[in-house]
Amino acid sequence: MINRKFLAGLLCFALLAGAAGYKLMRQTEKGITATGTIEVTRADITPKVGGYLTELLLEAGDSVENGKVVARISRSDLEAQLLRDEAALTKAQVQLQDLVKGSREQEKTASTADMAAAQSVFDKAKHDLERYTVLYHQGAIAAQQLESIRSAYDVAYNSLVAAQAKSSLTEEGNRPDEIQAQQEEVKRCQAIVDASRSAVADTVITSPLTGLVLTKNFEQGEYVNAGAPIATVGDMNDCWVKVYVPSAQLALIAVGQAAEVKVDAFPDRVFAGTIKEISSNAEFNPRQSITQRERANLVFAVKVKVDNAEGILKPGLPADVIIP
Predict the structure, then answer these.
(1) How many CB atoms are closer than 10 A to CB 184?
(2) Higher pLDDT, 144 or 21
(3) Averaged pLDDT for residues 275-289
(4) DSSP 251
(5) Average pLDDT, the chain
(6) Phi and psi (nearest 5°) for 197?
(7) How do 32-45 and 318-323 pair as beta strands?
(8) Which fold, 30-42+234-323?
(9) What are the residue boundaries of the YbhG-like alpha-helical hairpin domain, all occurrences included (predicted)?
(10) Nearby residues of 108 by Cβ (< 8 Å), 6 or more positions away
(11) DSSP states along 259-271
(12) What residues form DSSP beta bridges with 243?
């Protein structure tokens, strides 16, 4: 009776061992199995300027779209700076227009009148000089009187030359180099305005991608520094699992190869996957490997993209990847 019980127990043990071996062999034949966690492409929502959050239009778990306004920062100093720079630009543009237009008609009329007056004075001075010169040679006047008339003639002549030059400048308008210098000043002011407008625009914060708000790090009314992550958004459609494949099995996989992904949260479902990336550099097994021998093995990181059209796979969920 004892021998029969012993034989029956031995037979059961053999059957169990055989089933386990068959299952193990079957899994080995099916393909490569590795474990990782669900990940999604993430992006931090960060402001380019610091200030107080006057508006914060998101909460953890909200869906956001790329380019959608999610927060606003109060910066009255930047707004005042923009007004100042726009005023300087307007002034420079008006000055340029004035230079390009040249002299006004009233200025041209006044210049012509000044030249006519100077011509009249010169003609009289010239006539007086000719007449007094004759009288001097006749002995009718003294040399001192002639010198006085000659001096008046020189003054009249110089006044006529000055009036002619002024009239010529009035007709020609401003010099090209002055206009060019003012044009460059307008460009400089425009660049300053563009920079100020950009700084003001940076107070409006938008989402960098379409996805789900994973974390929220600030509340409305708090002060946030430039570059600080206000929140983190995850693109749930760009879902993947990172696993490690031993170097001995690297030849069995390729980019674009189909894979199956199983998640503990959905034990009855198999999610379609595709190998998206295979690392070119070998590394040691991750820390979570069980034995020291496994940790010493060289492995290659493999990124498996998972179909998450339903959006039910969340970052951090453990997942098994089976590569046939």
Answers:
(1) 12
(2) 144
(3) 75
(4) G
(5) 84
(6) -65, -40
(7) antiparallel
(8) Elongation Factor Tu (Ef-tu); domain 3 (2.40.30)
(9) 75-192
(10) 170, 171
(11) EEEEETTEEEEEE
(12) 302
